[in-house]
Design brief:
Radius of gyration: 19 Å
Number of helices: 14
InterPro entries: EamA_dom, EmrE-like
Organism: Nicoliella lavandulae
Protein name: EamA family transporter
Number of strands: 0
Keywords: Membrane, Transmembrane, Transmembrane helix
Order of helices and strands: HHHHHHHHHHHHHH
Number of domains: 1
Subcellular location: Endomembrane system
Largest sheet: none
Helix content: over 70%
Length: about 290
Amino acid sequence: MNQKKGITFAVVGSICWGMSGTIAEYLFATQHVSPLWLVGLRLLVAGILLLAWSGIIKHESIFSIWQDRSARLPLIGFSLLGMLPSQLAYFMAIKYGNAPTATVLQFLGPIFIIGYLTIAHRSLPSRVDIVSVILAVIGTFLLVTKGHFDSLALSIAALAWGIGAGLSQASYTLLPRKLLARFDARLVVGWGMTIGSLPFTVVLVREPMPTLSFPVVASIFFIIIFGTMLAYLFYLNSVKYISPSATGMLSSFEPLTATVLSVTFLSTPLSFVQIIGGLFVIATVFVQTIFKHE
């Protein structure tokens, strides 16, 4: 029963993330919403809601983490070097490309983690890591070129922001590990989002708001509540009932959801070769989680 609950949390959370990417693509392409404005609003509102949630559930001050001097610098680092760039790069990759490719390129995060750990530990990568890197390189090549050596299927900006999303996703994963071991996850992520939103306050104040039609308001509401706050909550709850490796594999529902929705509702063009490339990149998650123990 608990395993089914964990699988449900992981799948629902991944689907929410995938849906939010497609909805963001809709806002950027048809409603002319600024990615900077949306990222700032998303982080600020979702961060405040998570902090309030943590305070209510834990029955303690949300400022307790700041009373621990050893936690202050890591929390600021996580906010500005992990949370902020991961959200910004992902939305900018959608802006200049599309939701499916941006979501798949995010899956390059584990490859950057492998590179970091290889350098940090001064050791050669394992066979599993080498296979993962090869799969990621082939998949990325197919995704961005459609198999043609002399042309790009994505703009340089979309490719750069997509790779940046993968790199910042690695930072997002590595930076808060010690904090999450000591503090409530809602508290850490809530402060990460709130602090990460601060550089966008000028944009939120100065940039004109988009026309608040019902589709726009509903889309923004979904991105903040379901695609950010609840998606993180579902993910964090899933690892209570199933292994992190299982959660990692089930996260493949995110690019699957983004691809199906974008192609179906937004008519986003994706070739067969690009789909194969995306599957190669996603396969790195399965290789890492299934064979890493060897």
